[in-house]
Amino acid sequence: MARTILIVDDSASMRQVVAFTLRQAGFAVLEGANGQEALHQLGSQRVDLIVTDLNMPVMDGITLIRNVRGKPNTRAIPVLMLTTESQDAKKQEGKAAGATGWIVKPFHPEKLLQTIARVLP
Amino acid sequence: MQPVEMGTYTAEGNQFLTFTLGAEEYGIEILKVQEIKGYSAITHIPNAPPHVKGVMNLRGTVVPVVDLRAKFSMEPVEYTKFTVIIVVMVGQKIAGLVVDAVSDVLNIAAADVRPAPDFGARCDTRFISGVVSIGDKLAVLLDINKLLCEEEIAGAAGGH
Amino acid sequence: MQVDLNRFRETFFQESAEHLAEMEAGVLKLDQGAFDPELLNGIFRAAHSIKGSSGMFGLDEVSRFTHALESLLDRIRAGEIPVTKPLSDLLLRATDRLRQLLDAAASGGPVPEGIESVRDELHLAQRVQSPAGGEPVRLRESDRDMTTAARQIYQVHFRPAAEIFAQAMDPLLLLRDLARLGESASIQADCTALPELSGLDPERCYLAWNIRLETAKPAEEVRDVFAFVEDGAQIRIEVEELKPAAEVAAPAAAVAQPVNRDASIRVATSKVDRLVDLVGELVIAQSMAHAIVHDFSMARLGELQESIAQMERYTHDLQERVMSVRMLPISHIFGRFPRLVRDISVQLSKNVRLEISGEDTELDKGVVEQMADPLTHLIRNAIDHGIESSEERMRRGKPEQGLIRLAAFHQGGSVVVEVSDDGGGLNLERIQNKAVERGLVPSSEVLSEAQICDLIFSPGFSTSQQVSNLSGRGVGMDVVRRNVEALNGSVSLSTEPGAGTKIRIQLPLTLAILDGLSVRVGAETYLLPLVAIHESIRPRPEQLKTLTGRGEAVLVRGDALPLLRLHQLFAISGAIGDPCRGLTVIVEHAGQRFALLVDELLGEQQVVIKSLEANYRKVEGVLGATILGDGRAALILDVAGLAPTARHENLDRAA
User: Fold this and answer.
1) Which of A30, C89, C112, C545 has its CB surrounded by the most CB atoms within 10 Å?
2) Mind telling me how many Å the CA of B82 is from chain C's nearest CA?
3) What is the largest CA-CA distance in chain A?
4) Burial of C447 by CB count in 10 Å (0-12 exposed, 13-18 middle, 19+ buried)?
């Protein structure tokens, strides 16, 4: 059965690119435009990995990570943060909140797949 | 006598759709023909040339209808349910030609086409691309693009 | 694996355009003195988004430029740099440059001039206030894969932080990754820290591992495997040399390619959902009708009629909604005007402010796009010729700052867009004189105010003393009118000398659907746009007048309206010739009313406008055609096109 990745980013073009890359690689993809939508998806769907941006309206990435780590049925889901190199403080915050890893933007789609391979069994 | 321009033909020939107007036989290139349909209601257009009878509904598109009898200054006849309209493509536009009846689709070799004889004062022969013998009859081949030229179809100075 | 990103570039460019608009709007507000942390955050986020996504698509120029902009914005929102006029000017210029950069990227054109210098300015601006002497952040070089010559043996010791599981990271994955790096690896677990079962917390990691890894990869890559888990972990990597291997260089980053831009529309998913629902309902209604027909009896006739009526309703709804998919709010083009007004005011040394209302008013996408140029011209005109200089305004006792109002709203079946100014208004006498001079009107003719105003739209008409290079570039009011009328709209003007001018543009809600009144003249059916119709009356004989030199008219409540006989105009036989036995439909165009003589009214109906020009040509007085319920084609009359005939026809005939 295909594994499911939830991509969370308020940029539609970003989501499109990531979703396309992931689907090509055989993953099933769910999308959310912010943390709130992501939680909604997590509430009803089985997700194997979350890839999330940090700067989003309604609910940002860090808060999403905290929420994910705070619930019993989602706390074991690996989470990758999408960061930019100037966001070091945010990255630390994300780690402290429980992020599994991160990918620095801009990234080559190959790199995304490689990073995902590192955190998905 | 004016020399008549011959259209471009391939060595093998072209396929023509032949039709009748009164006692005379005409032909137009099959490639220009989109379809043949029966008579349908024609809506009059104000201030149009006499041979542009109006427009008709062709599956949702409004298409002008030209009466070839009127164009050739022949006696008009009444349209009946047997009247045929040949829908032709003229550049980017389509138009309908009202004719008496459709005859046949024929392969006509370029070698068999002769220049049109002088019809005298009868009509403007720019749009005749040649004549050909079919059996014992003479069919007049028409150049559709020249027949339905700008003033009818594309607007501009002419008319009212 | 090849991943082709080109198909997503369209979305990226659309998104970036939106972000750019947000940025510009935000900076304009800043410019006007609004200092609000949320505003700054919004501007920053917009730049940040463009930066992030542009990098994804290999648009390095855009990315670098936006990075400089973003850094500056970050300092501003942190309060480290104050917002001054020169600064907001710089930000506006940077926004322009960014727009140019994105356009160039979208079309595959060359990088525009002057990008470097603006970017330098952005960097410079950052240094101004920063105590630390802010160095511009340099972008990291894109990763280049280089394998070193030698294969080595690494001894790796890895004791993860006890809380590693809280990151949802399984150490097994790391060991697997390590193993994959090399040609061989042997792994040994170190269980020395493992407590008794009774004291074991399953959520803590007590294990460590020793790995002997043989690989040609460099130490950084080995280290990199642990990148996510470095904090709190013990990681030791020791090296032993082995033998050399071949060098491999990796390819550079993807080259930006020109995009094929198909026109596309962004549609709210709710709109699409509703369409999907409607189609579903239609299919159900259709199968119900089918079932009735299949098992028909006269007793079921009513049922069938109802079923068909239902289908009609759904189809009608569907038609409207599909058209509305093409609807865009007019804010799409209104958005550029605050900037335009600011720039032109500065250029012409006028003090003007712009008020906008009704930006949410929706119009067909095609109409909206076509309105950009005419509106731009009208606004330029208003600032250039309408609004007086500050001194002049004060002398007249007006507020120093001129006001231009741009409003859009629905009225009846149309959308109305008004451009008004509180400037000096038009000099009606001068206009009339000019018209007489140009032979547009006979000198003896007495014109109403509305008619004089309408003269402005005559081709080649211009009363300004000098044609300024802003508004006088051959984009005259006549072109505005032509453009509007090409969209089946109308434009008119009213003015109050000394107080201001208002230009009113009326546009159809959609391009293709018309609310019409069908009328019969002889055996022909025509449609009149409902929106142009005032009323219809059967005049009494005493209401009909023949005015010498002017033709026929119908007296309606004191006004003599020119009477146009459609049966004569269209050479229709068998029609009613006596207005008192037929009906006169009173229509209006550009503020003027006139009457059309028809045989009878057939009823109101909504029709789809079919183009007559597509296969035939434009016919005076005819707006288009439509297909009636019985399959016949019918002509839709163009009230605007008939109006001049109403005037002149009567003049001619009376002569």
Assistant:
1) A30
2) 18
3) 38
4) middle
Span C615-638, pLDDT tens digits: 888 888 888 888 776 778 999 998
C618 touches chain B (CB under 8 A): yes
Q: Do A86 and C54 touch (CB under 8 A)?
A: no
Q: Kindly state whether B157 is in contact with chain C, defined as any CB-CB distance less than 8 angstroms.
A: no
Could you tell me which residues are beta bridge partners of residue C363? C328
Binary contact (C611, B62; C-beta < 8 A) = yes
CATH class of A4-113: alpha beta
- Alpha helices by DSSP H, C57-162: 60-77, 85-107, 115-129
What mean pLDDT is predicted for residues C450-465? 72
Q: Do chains A and B touch (3 or more CB pairs under 8 A)?
A: no
Residues of chain B below pLDDT 50: 1-11, 121, 154-160
C526, two tokens:
């025509």
Sketch out chain B's domains with CATH numbers: 14-149 (2.40.50.180)
Q: Do C170 and A121 touch (CB under 8 A)?
A: yes
Of C248, C251, C215, C253, residue with least CA distance to C147: C248
Domain locations along chain A: 4-113
Contact C571 B56 (CB under 8 A): no
According to the per-residue pLDDT averaged within each range, which of C61-65, C458-462, C464-468, C486-490 is highest?
A: C61-65
What CA–CA distance (Å, rounded) separates C219 from C469?
67
Range A76-94 average pLDDT = 86
Q: Using the beta-carbon criterion (under 8 Å), do A119 and C228 form an inter-chain contact?
A: yes
